[in-house]
Structures are given as C-alpha cells and as structure tokens.
C-alpha cells in the first residue's frame, strides 16, 4: 500500500530524559503534562535476562509458562517510554531507572548482567540512585488513568507488556493462563501493537525475522542514544511505528491486540462471554440489531481508527 498524504513529522534531535530518584517528581510531572497531547506510548524494558528459555518448537502454552516464570522471578531494571501523537510527533522520551535489582542476590540469566554492562548499564548507580519500583507504581497508574491512555507500541513486546502490568500495579504476579493475562492487558492497559508481529505483513521487512535495529535500518530511522537502553529503544520503536503506518497503510485489524509469537489476539474473557451470551445465529444481516440487546455488544470493544 502507498504512503498516506500526511506531512511528515519534524525530526529534530530528541532528548532522552534520564529519570532517577532525585528528579523523579519533576520528570513524572513533565510526563503528566506531555500526555495531554501525546497519548500513544511506545515502550521498551530492560530486565535481568531469562532464567529459563523455551526450546525451539515449544507450544504457545509452554512459551507462556516460561514467560510467566521469568517475569515473576525477576525485577525490572529500566522502562523506556516515548510519547507521541496521531501525526507521529514525538512529545518526549523518558528512561526510568529502577533501584530494586541487585545482581549480587537477585535472579537473572547467566550472561545478562555482563551483556547489560557492556551496553552501558551501571548497576552500582542504579542501586544507589535508582527509583524504587513502589514509588513509580504509586504515581504512574493514576497518570495513565487520568489521560485515558490505552494505546501502547512495542517491539517483540511480550516481556515489555508483562513487566509493564506489574510496574503499573495492575497485578502482583502474572496469572497462570494466557487467557487471564490477555484479560488483564485488555482491561487494564488497552490496545497493544507489536512491530515484530506487524512486520510479517510488510513487504521488504524480512517476514518479521529481524530485530529492532534492523527494522530501523530498513525503515531509514535514525537511532538516538545507545541500543539495549530502554529510552533509546522506545524512541526507535516510536519512529519505526509511525513509518510503518505511513509506508504500508496498515489496517488496525492486523495491528491491534497481537504480540509476536502468539497466534491469538488478546481479548478480555469478559467480552468473550458477553459476545457468547448475546450471539444468535439468525442475527447476521448488517444493521439488524434487536431493540432488546444493548448496542455495545455489537461495537468492537477497542476499535480505533489510526
């Protein structure tokens, strides 16, 4: 599909705002104000690797179980958030640095600490100057609710979303089933988009078999900051998302509600039950909505026109 007829957003050099305990109050206030006009949030997380890895050929149930175990056993290190609007304008990027993870005592993947250190992670500074996750949680969710934010963009985002819902305080531990997880995400977060999933439907994007760095290169998007740092990765995710939507004119039906690696769209179990309750095999003609059935049952729960 061709490029839409919209003026491209300005590409000034963006500032990645480093957030620590010392400036948390002022930066969360700036973030709050930014969301008045920029309500699409692209996120990336840095975490202590994988304690257990799903072997090749694992079922989706096995992948979810390993994911659940890893997220429940480990602590979030960084959360990068880039706020943008419907025209692709970047409102700001924040990199929240957390103090809770201690590489000397907390669970982590065998080579994860050295990998993150090689990419600029300073664990001593994080422990000394980072934000306690409880402080972040106490402030973040109320801001998201205040601005009714319900559009989130990721790249290969299963773990990003898993850590996000814990950091938001929506849940203490991830639920046992993918269906329960989907319900928490849909009802507590809203619409998620995963660029790795979306790239499977875009000509020239290697059928989704690529990383974020390669995706940015193919879309001619410049990286600011260092890769494998959450703020930089969230910013590249945001600019790549806009470019994909503009270049390929993608439909929300293949964008919204999917996470790479899982075949089913994220749906709330409550909404599934409502649709089952109100479904009738004869109600198939367009426009025929019996007066006794609420209209919302026929309206897509999280439809949004991009």
UniProtKB/TrEMBL annotation:
The keyword DNA repair does not apply. Signal peptide: none annotated. Keywords: Cytoplasm, Exonuclease, Hydrolase, Metal-binding, Nuclease, Nucleus, RNA-binding, Transcription, Transcription regulation. The keyword Hydrolase applies. Its EC number is 3.1.13.4. Pfam families: CAF1. It catalyses: Exonucleolytic cleavage of poly(A) to 5'-AMP. InterPro entries: CNOT7/CNOT8/Pop2 (IPR039637), RNase_CAF1 (IPR006941), RNaseH-like_sf (IPR012337), RNaseH_sf (IPR036397). Its cofactor is a divalent metal cation. It is found in: Cytoplasm; Nucleus. Gene3D superfamilies: Ribonuclease H-like superfamily/Ribonuclease H. It is an enzyme of class 3 (hydrolase). Component of the CCR4-NOT complex, at least composed of CRR4 and CAF1 proteins. Ubiquitous transcription factor required for a diverse set of processes. It is a component of the CCR4 complex involved in the control of gene expression. Belongs to the CAF1 family. This is poly(A)-specific ribonuclease. It comes from Citrullus colocynthis (colocynth).
């Amino acid at each position: 599909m061709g490029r839409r007829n919209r003026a491209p957003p300005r590409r000034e050099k963006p500032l990645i705002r480093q957030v620590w305990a010392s400036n948390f109050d002022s930066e969360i206030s700036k973030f709050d104000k930014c969301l008045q006009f920029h309500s699409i949030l692209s996120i990336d997380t840095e975490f202590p690797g994988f304690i257990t890895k799903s072997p090749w050929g694992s079922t989706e149930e096995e992948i979810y179980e390993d994911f659940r175990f890893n997220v429940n056993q480990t602590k979030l290190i960084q959360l990068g958030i880039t706020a943008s609007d419907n025209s692709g304008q970047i409102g700001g990027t924040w990199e929240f640095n957390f103090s809770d993870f201690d590489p000397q005592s907390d669970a982590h993947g065998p080579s994860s600490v050295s990998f993150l250190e090689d990419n600029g992670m300073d664990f001593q500074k994080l422990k000394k100057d980072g934000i306690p996750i409880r402080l972040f949680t106490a402030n973040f969710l109320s801001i998201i609710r205040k601005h009714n934010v319900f559009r989130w963009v990721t790249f290969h985002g299963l773990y990003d979303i898993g850590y996000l819902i814990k950091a938001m305080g929506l849940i203490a531990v991830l639920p046992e089933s993918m269906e329960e997880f989907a319900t928490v995400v849909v009802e507590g977060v809203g619409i998620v988009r995963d660029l790795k999933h979306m790239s499977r439907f875009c000509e020239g994007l290697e059928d989704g078999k690529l990383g974020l760095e390669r995706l940015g290169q193919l879309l001619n998007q410049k990286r600011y900051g260092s890769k494998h740092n959450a703020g930089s990765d969230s910013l590249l995710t945001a600019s790549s998302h806009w470019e994909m939507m503009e270049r390929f004119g993608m439909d929300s039906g293949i964008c919204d509600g999917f996470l790479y690696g899982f075949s089913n769209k994220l749906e709330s179990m409550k909404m599934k039950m409502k649709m089952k309750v109100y479904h009738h095999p004869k109600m198939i003609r367009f426009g025929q909505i019996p007066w006794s059935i609420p209209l919302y049952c026929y309206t897509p729960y999280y439809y949004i026109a991009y």
